[in-house]
Amino acid sequence: xxxxxxxxxxKNWGASYVEVMPFIQEAMAQALQELRADFPEQFQGDLVxxxxxxxxxxxxxxxxxxxxxxxxxxxLWLQRYASRFDVLEKRARVRGAKPNV
Length: 101
What we know:
Elements: H1 17-36, H2 44-55, H3 79-94
C-alpha cells in the first residue's frame, strides 16, 4: 500500500474497487520491480510471477500460474505453488546457489 497514492487508498477512496483497480495495479507493478531486485537473478522471473499470481489486484486473475490456465478449484490448489517452489529450490541446488533459510 505504500506505493499506492493517497487519494486511491481505502481510507480516502469512496468509489468501487473496480474503479481504483488500475491504480492498485500500477502500485503493484512498482512494488514488484523493487521486490525483483531481492531475488537471485536466475529466479527473478519465476518468483515475481508467483507473487503476482498469488497477489494480483484483480481477484479474477489470482491463482492461475499463467494466462491460459484456469484457476484451480478445491483444497489442493496451493499444491502447484508448493511444487513450483520445489522445482526452483532444486534448480538452485543444481546451480550451486545457496538457499536463504
